[in-house]
Amino acid sequence: MTSEKEKVKRETDRFSLHFLLFTRYGPLIGTDATFHKGVMKTAMLTTTNKQRLLTQLFALAKGGKGSEPEARPVLEQFVYAICREGATREQADRAFRNLREHFFDWNEVRVSSTRELAEAIDSLSDAEGRAQRLIDLLQEVFETTFSFDLEALHKMGMKQAAKRLARYQAANDYAVAWVVQQSLGGHAIPLDAPSLRVLRRLGLIENEQEDLEALRASLEHQIPKARGALFCDLVSALADEVCHEDEPQCQACHLAPHCPSAQEFKAAPVAGEFSSRQKPR
Fold first, then answer.
1. Which of 54, 7, 81 lies closest to 221, judged by CA?
2. CB 206 within 8 A of CB 54
3. Alpha helices (runs of H) in the chain, residue ranges in sequence order
4. Dihedral over alpha carbons 110, 115, 117, 121 (to 10 degrees)
5. Residue 35: strand, helix, or coil
6. What pLDDT, in 10s, does the model give residues 105-129?
7. Measured between alpha carbons, how far is 39 from 36 in angstroms, rounded to an integer?
């Protein structure tokens, strides 16, 4: 009987062969493009191909994409994470700056209405939902610490600090991973919907895998800790500039020659798979 390990190896070899033939000769006869939540299903890249693709991704930083993140206290990184999820760094920076400039301090933010906060961060999607999360976070921090200071988390172990962060009502996987990466010095890759879309299309993570913790663990094995923040910025920029959910602009993407999905889109466009997007005039 064939062992499970042999089955896995056989399947891996089959995908590797398919990808090799595909990159050299184009799509194989009888190969259909299928989609998973708007992402074309492609064979997972081999470890070597993943590293080659990551090298090309980090090379984009030389073109001006990505820069050193700004150091902030833990609470402010938490607030920033709520702004940053599903947004570009520029959009999040603008929203965070408006919060600091339009309100006297975090206590004034806490006692403001969701409408007032939403107006200050209206450059972000779902501004009212984010505004409510900000109020919930600041209210809970104030009730538990009688201040707006979470620096005590630095004295805890990384896992304990992450668990403490996750207890806040406004927390989610992205926010916790962001604070761990940006403030607590841990190795964590925050993943939002645009990032997941890009990484699935690139073949760096599995299409069918929905467990965010498992996906982050996989990426954290591939991405050095020192480059985690840069990786997040570069992927976020790709999602905003070219790897759109509808009608991705593969021809304008520097990673297209190394991206399985870009090759599929180019060789076998599927009519009707994407909803209409207004093209810029």
1. 54
2. no
3. 4-25, 47-59, 74-84, 89-102, 106-111, 114-120, 127-145, 158-166, 173-182, 193-202, 212-222, 228-241, 260-267
4. 160
5. strand
6. 999 999 999 999 999 999 999 999 9
7. 5
Higher-pLDDT residue of 44, 166: 166
29: phi then psi, degrees, rounded to nearest 5? -60, 130
Q: Which two tokens stand for residue 197?
A: 């879309």
Give the list of residues 6+ apart from residue 3 with CB closer than 8 angstroms, or none: none
Q: Look-up: residue for tokens 């609470």?
A: 75
For residues 64 and 60, give the distance between their C-alpha atoms in angstroms, rounded to a whole number.
7
Cross-strand partners of 35: 40
State the angle between helix axes of 4-25 and 260-267 in degrees (0 to 180), rounded to the nearest 10. 50
Q: What is the pLDDT of residues 169-178, one digit of tens each?
A: 999 999 999 9
Please give the structure tokens belonging to residue 252: 């304008």
Q: How far apart are CA 243 and CA 195, in angstroms?
A: 10
Which residue type, as a one-letter code, is found at position 160? Q
Q: Which two tokens stand for residue 224?
A: 């050095």
Interhelix angle 74-84/127-145, rounded to 10 degrees, is 160
